[in-house]
Here is the input.
Amino acid sequence: MTSSPHTSKLSFPSTQEPRCLEGKDETRTTVPRHSPSTHPDPRVRGDDNFDLKQRVLEILSHVPDPEIPCVSVVDLGIVREVHENTLYITPTYTGCPATLAIERDIRKSLDAAGFAEMTIETALSPPWTTDWISDEGREKLRAYGIAPPPRGAARYSLREDAAQCPRCGSMHTEEISRFGSTPCKALCRCLDCREPFDRFKCH
Amino acid sequence: MAEENVLFHHALRLGDDALILGQRLSKWCGHAPMLEIDLALANIALDLLGQGTLFLGLAGEIEGRGRDADALAFHRDVLDFRNCLLVEQPNGDFAQTMARQFLFSNWHELLMREIAAAPDARLSAIGQKAVKEITYHARFASEWVVRLGDGTEESRTRMIAGLEWMWRFVDELFDAKDGAPSLRAEWDARIARPLREAGLELPKPRRGILGGRVGHHSEHLGHLLCEMQFLPRTYPGAVW
Here is the structure.
């Protein structure tokens, strides 16, 4: 249940190199320099705190998801908002065990970058949706072998069409189990190349 | 103050339902008939534990006596639990577990849609999050009721027996005093379809058993809590 992530002695695989990518820094999300009024990310746009937000997003774009290390917490849309000196994050699923590890990893990164004073709050509403996964994040998932959710499909979450096989690209696939290796994934199989694969559930 | 108290008990009931069913389901981990079902039941259990943590955390916050979700989950005795009797029923075989899930999740989904629209922002935030997860649970259980009911003679017999076992505890969910009577008609319609598809009939009406919401539980809950609470009670304050 609840416990302090700061005192946890559990080891999480978060320090591993992302296996899907070569080179050290490729999990980082490019956060291009934009002015506050034109920034493509609504979390940043039009805010007086622009520089701070930009900086924090840049730092967190190096923090990988502990269970799907090819994407960062920014790619997944877990990082919600920076307001004054508080960072708001949101869980994907209520019981996702990675939530504590994610908070711990974010804390470590913020501390290391000189943001030890910044507090981290969890915001539940509005609830996280797969529509918040960035386009870049979707591509990284595909390259990692996980079929990403189609953009804008979250509202049809229970009427998912066949997933596209992330290996051979075939649409000729079937769902084996709606519940997969983590709460956010379903297990599928390609009927052409016969390989099983994970699919990010629309949510 | 009275309003706070109502909200506290409301959050406690919601938290206890999710926590107890989550604990029940997690017993299937490593024992389910197939790997896929094992994953599914563990995932559903995890969702419920997450929801239970949030609701109990909120209950503790409203109460304002310094009890957090852990304190409420691990340091209350059986008479203080407010879950419905349905969720504490034993797993039995897979069909009995699915019968319980089918009856509960279809109700839980309807209830959580109401909670999501609740005037209290904290309650509503948890409801909005939970309803997305519960939709999967209801669908999973409904599919298995069809598959088992419309499967072999053996699976059908077991499905009927599972529904028979659980049916006594349905009325409590819609009890005029501590339940959600306004959801009954929609729930009846929702469960009728999979049952029809499965070629199953509604169990015969039986006198409903009440009591969970006021702390009168079956013997089963005591045994469940014994196992669930053993560690934090033996080693209070233990951390990883």
